[in-house]
Design a protein that fits this description.
Layout (H helix, E strand, L loop, with lengths): L7 E5 L8 E5 L7 E4 L6 E4 L3 H4 L2
Antiparallel strand pairs: 1-2, 3-4
Length: 55
């Protein structure tokens, strides 16, 4: 049986040929981290700042 060690979020890859859902660690407020999709290698920065979403 698996056990949850730390809170997690899920990110879905937006590449049309991939769409893989993968888990990432929940970060402290104000921090960002770059992750790579385990299936296709696409890079993402999460969480997205509200300032970036409005652009």
């Amino acid at each position: 049986m698996a056990r949850l060690i730390r809170p997690t979020w899920a990110i879905r890859c937006v590449q049309s040929g991939c769409r893989t859902l993968f888990e990432v660690a929940k970060l402290e407020d104000g921090k960002q981290q770059e992750v790579v999709c385990p299936n296709c290698g696409e890079h993402y920065v999460y969480p997205i700042n509200n300032d970036e979403e409005e652009k």
